[in-house]
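Summary for the lay section of the report: proteins are chains of building blocks that fold into shapes. Here we show the chain for [histone H3]-trimethyl-L-lysine(27) demethylase and then a coded description of the shape we predicted for it.
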Amino acid sequence: MKSCRVSLAVAAARRLSAAGDEEKKMAAGKASEPEEDSPRLSAQESDALARVDSSLFGYQRLHEDGASMKALLVKAVRCYESLILKAEGKVDPEFFCQLGHFNLLLEEYPKALSAYQRYYSLQSDYWKNAAFLYGLGMVYFHYNAFQWAIKAFQEVLYIDPGFSRAKEIHLRLGLMFKVNTDYESSLKHFQLALIDSNHCTLSKAEIQFHIAHLYEIQKRYRAAKEAYESLLQTEDLPAQVKAATLQQLGWMHHTVEQLGDKANKDSYAIQCLQKSLEADPNSGQSWYFLGRCYSSIGKVQDAFISYRQSIDKSEASADTWCSIGVLYQQQNQPMDALQAYICAVQLDHSHAAAWMDLGTLYESCNQPQDAIKCYINATRSKFCSNTAALAARIKYLQAQFCNLQHNSLQSKSKMLPNIEEAWSLPIPAELTSRQGVQSTGQQACKPQPGSSGGAHGSGQSLPPHVSPLDQADDQSSPAKRKRTASPAKSSTESWTNSSAQPPTPNWYLSPQKLQLLEQLRANRSSLKPLQLQMLEQLEAQLSAMHLHQQQMRQNSSGQIRASLPNGPSLPAHPVPRGPAVRPSCSAPPLANGPLPPSVGNNHTPGTRANGDVPYLHPNALPHNCTSPGDTWKSQHLNSAQGLQKGPGSHWAGPNGDRTLSSSASADGGPHNQVGLSATTPSEPAVNHLSSPSSTSSPASSSSQTATSGAPHGTAPTKESAAPQGNGSTAANHHSPERSPPAASADNPQLSKRSPVASSRANHVHPGSSASSPASSPSPRSAAPAAVNGSGGGACSEDSRSPLKLEPPELCIRAALKPSHSSSTVSIYPTSADVLKACRILGKNGLSSISVLLNKCPPPRLPPPPSPPLAKDKLNPPTPSIYLENKRDAFFPPLHQFCTNPSNPVTVIRGLAGALKLDLGLFSTKTLVEANPEHLVEVRTQLCQPADENWDASGLRKQWRCESSRSYTTIAKYAQYQAASFQESLREENEKKGQKEPSDSEITSSETVSRRRKGPFKQVKFGTNIDVSDEKKWKLQLQELSKLPAFARVVSAGNLLSHVGHSILGMNTVQLFMKVPGSRTPGHQEHNNFCAVNINIGPGDCEWFAVPEPYWGMMSEFCEKNNINFLKGSWWPNLEDLYEANVPVYRFIQRPGDLVWLNTGTVHWGQAIGWCNNISWNVGPLTAYQYKLAVERYEWNKLQSVKSMVPMVHLSWNMARNIKVSDHKLFEMIKFCLLRTLKQCQTIKEALVSAGKETIWHRRSRDEPAHYCSICEVEVFNLLFVTSDSYSRKSFVVQCQDCARKGSSELDGFVVLEQYRMEDLMQVYDQFSLAPALHSSSS
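The coded shape description reads as follows.
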């Protein structure tokens, strides 16, 4: 691939040089015209540029010793743009690709994006160019357009797994998936980067740190501890990595109970954090963690000093202020605690713990009305997991408040200002001025007479949170600079422009004087004349202060925080905040009410692991990597966040929940950003891609127009290949959700959705002069079609390229239908011809035999079926067949009906009765008697209504389906199942004895809403119980042989019976034990095979199913909700599906009913009662089933997901065992054999040329298919095994690409050969199309 790319670049450079000579001749013949000063490239310069592409990005030091290369690139860009302008767009698309590379290396990202998109719009087979896709991915990554960057990078690895920058791709994919909370995918890509011996942006130690931290986020604490400690043993560990590792290790020991007893854990945590601060004394996050640890063991002064250091090092941090408030409250200094909490909630309006602690403080000071307001604010935070208890507490306080008489309430003195007054108080400088901590430490030991709690507490009071009036206007603190409107104001008014905030006047009352005012008011009747005079002065001053504050709020009401025009994006005025580790909103024990006032009850240390993940900002990655040892100098990393310096770079806590501040977007944070980056890209927000509506004549275009890099209002010239249909642009054919994102006019960061502004819309304008006939149809439609990849790389029938997509009528399908033209290559060459063609491959991998160069475009998501269904057809009736006797079950049309693609799901009613199946063999009682100690996987879930899925707090619907995994035995789960049933009976009896609710109570929307949203109880679902052992489950498996052949576990017509080994749960039986509410989340079956599911009873199950053509839309819904469609756990929101016109089949499966899920059907289900189910997969011997299985095999490869069915291995077994009469099925299998044969021979030739011999290792009977232990792709015939594992006979297999990444010369590997080439050739040649048999199905 590399050599092919270089040759194209050389050709482009030479054409450019020749074009320059031609221009010179033309200019000489026009003496009357002034000669233009057009730059020209010499032959030497052209040769140098031919070796330049995107793979040099980050490795070419243009700003240091690469000045000459930078000058050459600048000259090349001018030359290319000049040529493109003069050629009026009639240039080879390769010029645009090279121009994109040059601009990328110069870090001219808008121009690079524009040139790449022009290349993409002109080059139909652009997906073959790995360097183009890599460069495009890098530009998207720069703009935080992760959705598109991930797609581009995945396609590079798909078409060229041995790409020279594969390690860099895996690294960046790992970072992006980590930000997107897809931790499994992130871990896999970091591990792939780690085994690669090539260089990349991060060092090996940094990658190891990310892997260890991913273990921690996934709650694999033992593995995380081992990984952190192993990393600390590394020699010459960079200080920043060491500091970050010790920080994470220390905090993890403080928060995770299973890592030891509390005393030892805290001691070890403090030791780690102190060592971390030795490595990086400026880490505010480590100081904060150390303060939390000191606070938990009662070292109040040490905790306070640590918090003060944290504020000094990391600017504003809501968590630190909240913790300071807890310390003050514990020391009985309520006024100081109040101000600290106010600081916290002003820095982060959604800080639930601070609001709860503030409410508790007000409640302890007998100010229930203010406490209620604080609790209500806490419940509004999406980070509060204690909503139900808070709501009960609010209700209790409201009732208590209403019962108090107004007069008696007025007579009581207020210890604290109310919430509105507190919000407007000036913040004193005692703790916020950026001075040395020594003065703080000294003041901590001095008595403070003005402190509200100085005479109380445990003998060691903290420095008061007050200051003299002359310091009241000090604005050095970020907390003060973030003064905002009262929480009672609307959210849009709450964040004002920080730069416009005026200084606090020095005549404002200090907190000390406000407290004095309250005391004087309370004792007005007994005051002396001097005290009355002081009271009048203070009240007058207070009135003036309130009036001034009101005027300031009115003046600043228009200063709402600006947002970028493309929806959720970066804050226009970034909120400087350090890493936030929000403590969970734990529910304290009940006393006089649901929430008694206890000190610091919401901010207890040790309730939360460190979610402040050291995420790398994309722009922190150096664009010009020096040497691996110098990478840290160019990273600008900050150990306060591990490996990232930037505000709020952490996105997810260790439990996977987000920790975004209120400055993030309302939908949970932008999905296309690494953290909350506080800066937009370095380029100005200029429209480098013109909008579809803008038009311009070529004469008015500037030199940038050639690459669509024009300023505002300037349109590019039209390219020769620009499609022109009925006067509309190519944008009319684009699907808004699938078009490649283009930079908007105001925002160079790409919007997550780019509606009509696709790449072609940015380059094609109806007002431009077209060089192609106006009546010619659009050559490409942007609507992607179904993915039709093939096993072993077989070409798809109608697969679509990733960004540019062909209409079905123009799609080349030569790979899947016989050729009748002499100018094309038949897919039926003999094996000898194939091997001969492989042997004559040149060193550069090129050959004149086109079938050997045949690459398939990466698979794409299918488009939504068109036309969309009417709303009244979105709940279609589920096909149901009622059986009365055995004859009905074996009636051939039943098989045909079930496997008909137009029936996504079929319910066969009464099957057990018709076939006299003894379902009692699968009852819980029989299972316990047969194998009581058999292993059961348990999923702990929330019991919810089947058509809804709420988060744990019950506040909002979501797609993510939460569950935790554990293991038990059949006997123990049977006890739980029975106990659950008895408890349900008891609850029913209790309900019968209670008074029936009235109609008005039932219809109350609030009551219904509260009842629906929880709180939800937990249920345990016994899943994936393997019943494949014929010795243990002989009677059960024999009973299933009564089923008709098409539905049996094993049959000649079942593709999975030809795999040759067991695939648990697919060609073996699995059992499920359920209680009401047990959920099987949404999914398609592995490799799109059919599934059989029988309900044993006694309860029912409810099912939901979506037809296979809509799986692309389901995948996009998962992507929008930050869930991995293939590996994540999700429960669709029916409202979302109906709004998108997705039909949903919904039905009840009763005991004895068989559910047949057809090929590729998306489904999910929930138990209504107590029941058991059995299921397995079936592969009908049809072209449709094989085609969809191969499509998913290729899609899995693109997504780096293991295919459970080894389609290459299965295809060769089918060729050996089955006579195929279906022409389409035969073509697909034959082509898979052809590709595999070619691949085997090519690898063997490469091994021979490298002097590497293969070792004969005959495949044994029932030996499973092999997968790469690193990347999990199927490995057929030639197994690359490490020498160590070979000597131990453990055979750890790798694919060729992974083996060469570890050692380019394959040192330390042996290659095992499982099939003789002669045997494979014989199978290939003998596999031929059998005559059609006119026999009925059985």
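Put simply, here is one thing we learned. The chain is about 40% helix and 5% strand.
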